[in-house]
Amino acid sequence: MRVLLYGGGFNPPHLGHLAALERAREVLHPDLTLVIPDGEPPHKPFPKGSPDTDERLVLSQLNFGDLPQTEISDLALRRDGPCYMIDTVDLLRRRFPTDELVLLVGSDMLLSFGSWFRSAELLRECTLAALCRGEGEIDAISAQARTLEARGGKVILLDHDPVEISSSRLRAMLPERMGKAYLKDEVYREIIRLRLYGAKPELSWLREQVITMLDPKRVPHVLGCEETARSLALRWDLDPEAAAEAGILHDMTKRWSAEEQLAYCEKMGIELDEGERQNPQLFHARTGAVAAREFFGAPEEICDAIRWHTTGKPIMSSFEKLLYLADMIEPNRSFPGVEKLRELAYLDLNLAMATALEQSVKSLRKRNMDVYKDTLDAYSWYRAYGK
Ligand SMILES: [Fe+2]
Ligand SMILES: [Fe+2]
Questions:
Q1: What pTM value is reported for the model?
Q2: Which bound ligand lies closest to the C-alpha atom of 283?
């Protein structure tokens, strides 16, 4: 049996890794493929902020797990101390005593093979399959292959046109809301859900995800809220991308039925008071704040703004006020006084809050609806502030 071994940091695993492995499998026809994420690499500890062992295993499973006859091995990951390939191979020999082990390596790794820990033993135990990009490096790679073969090794060269990306570049891109194009969808979703590597979602991706959760009639409102939140953030010196993210997410659970909202509250331990229970309009702010974190890893600032976007409260942060107002004045809203409120939102946030809350209280009373206590408290607070 031929067993293909593919080890690496996979921090994170990306489409370049996947393409390399698919190319190797296409040529080598292994009976089994083992993807082996490294533990702490010998010469290069993982950068700060890297995911923990379990999370890295999950990312590799998501990236490679769909390939047939492929296992993701935690053999190297769970071992303490430095992680050398020969140690992993020693362990694998217990399971595969007489099988052919083929070690997939990049061309740079083949060139530096002589400096690998116990490289002579590794050469005896494994066939080396080296990916090389043809022209440019083929001469050096071929020469190295001949050298290793002269030492009794077996080397297979695989031509491969690599995806131009690296894990380190991705780690730099993810906090800048970039990099999604180089990651499998499932991997990207998991990275965002846990905000690994300090990742922030690409807004076009987040928009697509949230739109599938919305009533189609609500989509223009949400997009309007995103744009207004961004514009208010620019005016008030807040983070426009975070504001846009809050705008996209703020009504993400609005479509859920009252039963679904209550079931989610139960599941996530969201405690509603009596006033909230009697007012299903308020549920989505409570569930949305928690779902934004659970589904998309939204940070506290955004979750808090979603939490208060329907009722308001006294002493809101600027970011909370911004979302409250964006929700109320986005371009699709029309009610008497909205133009005045739009102007105020760019002139004085607190005065705008007082005016918006007054509008909200009046409109609820006109429709004979209860005004929730937080809204009344907020109204008293900002009305006093405005005087
Ligand atoms: Fe809402
Ligand atoms: Fe809304």
A1: 0.93
A2: 1
